[in-house]
Write a structure and sequence with these properties.
alpha+beta, 4-stranded antiparallel β-sheet, 3 helices, about 30% helix, about 25% strand, globular
């Protein structure tokens, strides 16, 4: 695989499609780009129905490979919840 933004964008789009076939809910960022076809970036937000993530502030997996990650050759994969979750839950972890 080539380490280009286009390659990772396509890889993440395939992964999102594969995960949607099961019990996972996936979301991808849709960038505004002038002069280029619009397609999701290599950003993926993954959750399940019981994870209280309807407003993108529940428990979710988040992964992305964008320009900064391509330059550093390191990427982030995080299982976390945003500040909207009750502190008691967050303190358990």
């Amino acid at each position: 695989m080539r380490h280009t933004q286009i390659a990772y964008d396509a890889l993440f789009a395939d992964l999102a499609t594969t995960l949607r076939g099961g019990e996972w809910e996936t979301r991808q960022e849709q960038p505004l780009r002038t002069g280029r076809a619009r397609h999701p970036d290599a950003y993926l937000h993954v959750s399940r129905a019981g994870w209280e993530d309807a407003n993108l502030d529940g428990i979710h997996l988040e992964a992305y490979v964008l320009s900064a990650q391509l330059r550093s050759r390191a990427a982030v994969v995080a299982l976390h919840c945003e500040g909207g979750w009750p502190m008691r839950f967050r303190e358990l972890f």
